[in-house]
Design goal:
By secondary structure, this protein is α/β, with parallel strands linked by helices. It has two domains: 160 residues, D-Maltodextrin-Binding Protein, domain 2 (3-Layer(aba) Sandwich), CATH 3.40.190; 138 residues, Bacterial extracellular solute-binding protein, family 7 (D-Maltodextrin-Binding Protein, domain 2, 3-Layer(aba) Sandwich), CATH 3.40.190.170. Helices cover 47% and strands 17% of the residues. The strands form two sheets. It has a six-stranded mixed β-sheet, with helices on both faces. α5 packs across α14, α7 runs antiparallel to α13 and α13 packs antiparallel against α14. The protein binds (2S)-2-hydroxy-2-methyl-3-oxobutanoic acid. The site of (2S)-2-hydroxy-2-methyl-3-oxobutanoic acid has 12 residues, from α4.
């Protein structure tokens, strides 16, 4: 064999071997999507919408199974982000609260009374802040694709109406596992206790804790009024967005065409999911509140002056966390909110 034809042969053989080993061609039979709650909730529904669109638009090349109850991390929602990075979880629709132990900037949305209304939430997620936070998540090792929404977290309890911070005095309130929540509820005179959502429900039922804070969609679908959570105060102190993400190795294993499909499906599903989360609350007469009355829940709406007392009591917490989260990011958020379209 002449040198030239030998070289040609060797090149061809190498290319053949490389294509046989190419990881880009290996799709898993099934991808695991982590969720805290299932399809009876707007959150779980948002995951299902994403999975269905991807399956349909890829003709089944990418087949996603839902794992609600954060079952891939045994219900420990604050470990979800690490499991995503490590590949124990392939993709997720997760709350900023649950990932804030690993991505401290995500604590932004838990800053008490930062976001006065939905327009403020949108100004952050769809503006410079949203872009900066996606960069932070990417740098932390997981690929973010779209913003969804869990919602405004209102406070409920089994003991008495809450109208002023003093009403919270000594109340045992279940909070999620981010230290910012301990600071907020301690500042309000309550007795916060950290536990997972899986542990919170039996703790509320047995009256081991007096109250909790969650979006109304979670409050209702989890049937909290039936375990004695009869007092609900609409204080709108924080709202947690949801983020649609994919593990980076999984992402890299897909063709560019399939990556584009998964990204667009996440954007489409997230848009529908946000509308579901706001249903009954975004309308001027908030029909969801009437529904709650029918479940025997006393719904308390605060006057601006009453709300201000909660803002004032938590201001030192806001100031402390502004530094911890990053003063620049928080200032950008404050400016974006001030300039929002209403
Ligand atoms: O644990 C909660 O309160 C929940 C379900 O809202 C989250 O996962 C943040």
């Amino acid at each position: 064999m002449k040198v030239r034809s030998f070289l040609k042969f060797a090149l061809a053989a190498t290319a053949l071997a490389a294509s046989a080993m190419a990881p880009a061609q290996t799709y898993k039979p099934e991808y695991k999507m982590s969720l805290v709650v299932g399809t009876a909730f707007p959150w779980g529904k948002g995951g299902e919408l994403w999975a269905d669109k991807v399956r349909e638009r890829t003709q089944g090349r990418i087949n996603i199974k839902l794992y609600p109850g954060v079952s891939l991390v045994q219900g420990d929602q604050t470990r979800e982000f690490t499991a995503l990075r490590q590949g124990v979880i392939d993709m997720a629709v997760g709350s900023t609260i649950n990932w804030s132990p690993q991505v401290k900037q995500l604590n932004l949305f838990s800053m008490p009374f930062l976001m006065p209304d939905y327009a403020a939430v949108d100004a952050l997620t769809h503006g410079d802040v949203g872009r900066d936070l996606f960069k932070a998540i990417d740098q932390a090792g997981v690929l973010p694709l779209a913003w969804g929404e869990n919602g405004y977290r209102e406070i409920s309890n089994s003991k008495q109406e809450i109208r002023k911070p003093e009403d919270l005095k000594g109340m045992k309130i279940r909070v999620v596992g981010s230290p910012l929540f301990l600071d907020t509820f301690t500042a309000l005179g309550a007795n916060p206790t950290q536990m997972s959502w899986a542990d919170a429900q039996p703790a509320l039922a047995s009256k081991a804790v007096d109250g909790q804070e969650n979006p109304l969609s979670i409050f209702i679908a989890s049937k909290l009024p039936t375990v004695g959570q009869k007092y609900l105060t609409m204080w709108g102190y924080i709202a947690d967005p949801l983020i649609y993400v994919v593990n980076k190795e999984v992402w890299a294993s897909w063709t560019p065409a399939d990556q584009a499909i998964v990204r667009q499906a996440a954007l489409d599903a997230a848009k529908e999911q946000v509308a579901l989360s706001r249903k009954g609350l975004a309308e001027a007469d908030k029909p969801l509140l009437k529904e709650l009355g029918g479940m025997g829940v006393t719904v308390t709406q605060l006057s601006p002056a009453e709300r201000e007392a909660f803002v004032k009591a938590t201001r030192p917490v806001y100031d402390k966390w502004k530094t911890q989260i990053g003063a620049d990011l928080v200032t950008t958020a404050e400016k974006s909110i001030a300039a929002r379209k209403r």
